[in-house]
Amino acid sequence: MQCVICKHGQTHPGTVTVTLERDNCIVILKGVPAEVCENCGEYYLSESVTGKVLHRAEAAVSNGTEVEIVRYAA
Prior knowledge:
- Strands 1, 2, 3 and 4 form a four-stranded mixed β-sheet that branches.
- The chain is elongated and about 40 Å long.
- The protein contains one helix and four strands, in the order βββαβ.
- The protein is of the alpha+beta class and 74 residues long.
- It has one domain (11-71): Ubiquitin-like (UB roll) (Roll), CATH 3.10.20.
- Helix content is 22%, strand content 43%.
- The chain has one helix spanning 47-62; strands at 11-22, 25-37, 43-44, 67-71.
């Protein structure tokens, strides 16, 4: 697909690091599958991957975690 940010690059399957922050909690997930723009590096997560990422982040916030760094697991 064409990148909606830069309008020049095409996206290709790859992996990214996603960093989320809410309140006093930072969650970093490494190796998250995504479509990545070859030109600007913008990434797009599928609906199912987004759900898993948000679920993991919500669990960290609920547990009172300050910083959590994990490898994404499908």
